[in-house]
Amino acid sequence: MTRRPSRHRRPSRRAPPTAGAKPSGRLRLIGGDYRRRLLPVLDSPGLRPTPDRVRETLFNWLTAALPGARVLDLFAGTGALGLEALSRGAREATFVERDARVAAQLRGNLATLGAEARGRVVDADAAAFLAGPPAPVTLAFLDPPFRQDLAAPCCAALENGWLADDAFIYLETEAGLAPEVPATWRLHRELRAGDSHGRLYRREASSSPADDAC
Questions:
Q1: Nearest-5° angle of CA 144, CA 203, CA 134?
Q2: What is the pLDDT, as a whole number, of residue 47?
C-alpha cells in the first residue's frame, strides 16, 4: 500500500468512523484464490493501493515463498499486499494500521473474503508494534508514508526477532531515497514505478561461531 504526502492532517487512530469515511474506490486482487475479487477502499487522505502492475511483478518474484508463509504487513492501509499474499497461499498475515477507520475497513474486507481466521488486524503505529514481543515472519511488507523518515528505524526494528532466517522483506519508498537496511539483508530484486522505488530483500542469517570455525 502506498501513501502519498497530503496537506491534510492524518486522522487519529482512535477517531471513530464518521459519515465522511466512506468507500471511494475498489481494490482488485490479481491472483490466487481471491483472484478478481473487488474490495472497497476507504476514502482517507493519501491512501492508495499499491498499483496492480507493481503487485503482479512483486508476487511473481515471491511465488515460491508464498505457500505457508507467515506475513507481516506494516503500514497496511488497504492491505493490498497482505491480502494478495493470503490469496496466493500464505498461512497467516498480520496487518498493522494506525488509522482506526482504515483498520476497520480492512477487517471488513477480510470477513468478505472469509479470511478472518488467517488475517489479524492490529490498530497500532508500526514503530510501537515492533517494540513489542516479536513473532518471527517469513515475509514482511513495509510501505511507509513518504518523506517521514520511517523506513530506516522500522527496518532496524525488524531485526529484533521479527524475521525468520531467509525471510523476504519488501520495502517501498519514494524515488531517490537510498534506505539504510540491516547488514543481513541482501538486495534480491528492485522495481521503479512513478514516484516510488520498490526493493525486495532476502535476509541472510548471521553465521554462528561454529560455522566460522569450519
A1: 65
A2: 75
The predicted model gives 188-193 an average pLDDT of 95
Query: In terms of Cα–Cα distance, which of 72, 100, 104 is closest to 86?
Result: 72
Torsion of CA 187, 35, 70, 3, to 10 degrees: 60
What pLDDT, on the 0 to 100 scale, is given for residue 212?
Answer: 42
Neighbours of 170 (CB within 10 A): 23
- Provide the b/e sequence for 4-37 (b: ≥16 CB within 10 Å): eeeeeeebeeeeeeeeebeeeeebebbbbebeeb
pLDDT at 11 exceeding the cut of 50: no
Q: What distance in Å separates the CA atoms of residue 1 and residue 78, rounded to the nearest whole number? A: 6
The CATH topology of domain 22-213 is Rossmann fold (3.40.50)
Mean pLDDT of 105-130: 97
Structural contact between residues 106 and 96, judged by C-beta atoms closer than 8 angstroms: no
When pLDDT is cut at 50, 70 and 90, the band that residue 19 belongs to is very low
Q: What is the pLDDT of residue 50?
A: 80
- In this prediction the pTM is 0.85
Give domain limits for the chain: 22-213
